[in-house]
Fold Stress-response A/B barrel domain-containing protein.
Amino acid sequence: MLEHYVIFKPLPGKESGLDTACAELAAGFTDGLPGLVELSWGRNTNRSGLDRGFTHGCLGRFTDAEAFKRYWEHPAHARFMGVLDGLCEDRFAIDYESEPGD
């Protein structure tokens, strides 16, 4: 399993735009994508991240690197990436492999 977790720090006043962009990303996969196990996003509730301005997170879980590549190249992801610079002051991703049930 490949886990792809992204943390977002929106520009001032862009939090709702980031909500919309994340929702549109998730909606872009409602018909499914081979190897996409789960795609979730939400507003951060952890004080340590909020104190640094990181208000949102997004988690994608994939069966393998090939599934992640399909996601990365998918038009819904391309649209999402196209709007992030106008919404975010900073963002970073963490990718790691895990075993199911971890």
The first helix runs from residue 15 to 27.
